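Issue 218. Parser rejects a valid record. Input:
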Amino acid sequence: MDTTGDDTTLTGTLDIPISAVLRTERGVFQVSHGMDVVGMDAVTVGQLREVRAAEGDILVHRSLLQRAVYVPFDAIKDVRDGAIVLTITADHVDHMGWSHPPLLDLPFP
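Output the parser choked on:
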């Protein structure tokens, strides 16, 4: 599971890829910064902020009253109609423990 960015980036103080290829166990998808992320019930969860290939997740920005979430690649079902579709409904997102980035699984010395 990894992403391959293209050469298109937003200009300014941040170097944010506008689009990337997201490779998951379910397929290869072209995704874009700001793309809607929806539950399998088509209810909006938020917007794609970042693809974190090394961590195996995407960072999803949500409304001011909700925390951003780190959705693992294996929770992505599809990309269709311009949105990233999850394997769960939108109302289950808050119960998945995705409000903090996963800890790296590093061995202790």
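Fixed in the parser; the record now loads. The chain has a mean pLDDT of 82.
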